[in-house]
Write a structure and sequence with these properties.
This protein is α/β, with parallel strands linked by helices. The chain is about 25% helix and about 25% strand.
């Protein structure tokens, strides 16, 4: 197969053009590919899209940009065509499939245990089950269907369930998000592509395999998660919900059991600690038994909403209705106080959600469905914070810093999400008395109240936030305008701790315990967490034999 990079197709807009129509025009792509290769279209056997993005640098003239794989009917002609073209964008396709090597010789005394069923734990469990290790997955929260009912009841005014919410339960915090699958982690071993392939295997749309910024949407992600759980069970694994790990059993510095719900001992010598970034009680337990960990930097800020049309017009040059997908953005700023400000977890066509997980604390996040069709864009605009900002020493100082901010947000909104128009925030006046008849309303899952949220962030962070907003307004006109709406507080951007692991990816103090994923401080998002889970599964397979050899 021949690879063609940087193949551009101008996007032409007509009144009947639907989203993705250009991508679906395979015949147009075949003709374009044949022209680039200098051959007749009849010589092309097939094409496949390897990468796709939208180039808006010359807006309002826009382009689809592809990397294509092209197969010719005469395979022996492919090398001749490549040499004749003398084009650096044309080359032989080199496929590098992901491989999971089972090479261990040691015998497992009991199945490995995976603590947590977010992306890290779920993907680790999937691969271990697939290769015969019969993992036991323990999730403190509930299955995704029960969890969805609990979350929606909470958003509709019901009580918060501390064990079943936007943070805890099958699929982890990413289940109630945009389902973004892009990552900055280098993919030298093919783990990123394997994560995407597995998502597609369990029902995600095929285009995530080639889109520059792939996403699924929370509606599809729920089905993917439950499908992976069923696969794990069908392949010899065990999945238990409402199973909070409250202790570890050790002997001579090595793991020999995990304790569930303070009363049940499960024997194991291998446990994957994939607890997520909000498992504060588990962090406290680990600190109490002197598991090596440290406070780390993260970021805090506000969720900021705008009309999606404002973002589309800036990114694409003008609004194109359904002809193009809801536009994302990524923006960064440096401020006079020396703190970086940047957008995080941008949700085109999405909603702000109440993402609380502890009583009397309030945190927000962003979420989109697969169609990204709400008409509102939102993103966390966040400010860097460092251990010296936390006002305390020790590994859990960042956790307490988060809690203090979330308690302030809860008190400010009297339990509801506190919201303010940015122009009121800038003037330091409440939005409570504002006539909102002619204003955009916030799109929030959960109750909210208009108020004044000045003072919610620490003073220096608030100054940096405002500087960042004004800088972003020069990049995206209207970003700091009257249509911008703030919701607070965005505090769960990443884990506030890092749990140490050695060269074998194990906890230095407890042999057989593998800190993993975002909660342990080794990932930031769905894909990187899943990749870290795959890495841990590979590590176990390099040391131990499968339990069921007949599955190989």
């Amino acid at each position: 197969m021949i690879t063609i990079n940087q193949l551009k197709m101008e996007i032409r807009f007509g009144k009947d053009l639907k989203q993705g129509a250009e991508i679906d025009s395979r015949e147009a792509l075949r003709r374009k590919a044949a022209g680039v290769l200098g051959i007749n279209i009849s010589e092309v056997a097939d094409i496949c899209i390897l990468k796709h993005s939208i180039d808006a640098r010359k807006k309002p003239q826009l382009f689809h940009v592809y990397t294509l794989g092209v197969s010719l009917k005469k395979k022996d002609a492919e090398e001749k065509v490549i040499k004749r073209c003398k084009n650096q964008n044309i080359s032989r396709y080199m496929k590098e499939p992901y491989t999971f090597a089972v090479s261990g010789e040691q015998v497992l005394e009991a199945p490995p245990v995976i603590i947590g069923m977010g992306p890290a734990g779920l993907f680790c469990g999937y691969l271990l089950a697939k290769h015969g290790y019969q993992p036991v997955l323990l999730e403190r929260g509930y299955d995704v269907d029960t969890r969805t009912r609990n979350v929606e009841a909470f958003w509709n005014g019901g009580a918060l369930n501390p064990e079943s919410n936007v943070q805890f339960g099958e699929g982890g915090a990413g289940t109630f998000s945009d389902g973004k699958l892009n990552t900055l982690v280098k993919d030298r071993n093919g783990r990123n592509k394997e994560v995407l392939r597995i998502f597609v295997e369990f029902g995600a749309p095929g285009q995530i395999l080639y889109e520059n910024k792939p996403h699924i949407g929370t509606d599809i992600l729920k089905n993917v998660v439950s499908g992976m759980r069923k696969y794990i069970i069908d392949n010899g694994g065990t999945v238990r919900f409402g199973a909070k790990v409250t202790g570890l059993g050790t002997e001579n510095g090595a793991l020999n059991a995990v304790i569930v719900n303070d009363r049940e001992y499960i024997k194991t010598t291998q446990a994957v600690l994939a607890i997520g970034h909000s498992a504060r009680d588990t962090f406290a337990y680990l600190d109490s038994i002197h598991i090596p960990m440290e406070a780390k930097a993260f970021a805090v800020g506000m969720r900021v909403e705008h009309p999606q049309r404002l973002i589309n017009e800036c990114m694409y040059g003008r609004e194109h209705g359904n002809a193009l997908p809801a536009a994302p953005y990524k923006i960064t700023a440096q401020t006079t106080v020396g703190r970086g400000v940047y957008s995080f977890c941008m949700c085109p066509g999405g909603y702000v959600v109440n993402a609380s997980s502890e009583p009397d604390c309030l945190a927000v996040n962003g979420m989109s469905y697969s169609d990204r069709g709400s008409g509102k864009a939102n993103s966390a605009i966040i400010v860097q914070v460092f251990p010296e900002d936390y006002g305390a020493e020790g590994p859990l100082a960042g956790v307490e810093f988060q809690r203090q901010l979330e308690r302030k947000a809860f008190a400010l909104g009297h339990g509801k999400v506190p919201v303010q128009y940015y122009d009121d925030f800038r003037k330091n006046v409440s939005s409570a008395e504002r006539d909102t008849m002619d204003c955009d309303k916030p799109f929030i899952k959960g109750a909210y109240t208009m108020t004044n949220i000045r003072g919610l962030l620490p003073e220096e962070c608030e100054k940096a936030f405002m500087e960042g907003m004004e800088q972003f307004d020069r990049t995206i006109p209207g970003f700091a305008g009257s249509q911008a709406i703030l919701s607070g507080i965005e505090s769960r951007t990443s884990s506030p701790v890092r749990i140490h692991r050695d060269e074998n990816l194990q906890c230095p103090a407890v042999k057989g315990l593998y800190p993993c994923g975002e909660g342990a401080g080794y990932a930031g998002g769905i894909t990187s967490a899943a990749m870290d889970g795959i890495l841990i599964a590979e590590t176990i397979a390099k040391t131990y034999k499968p339990i069921k050899l007949d599955l190989l």
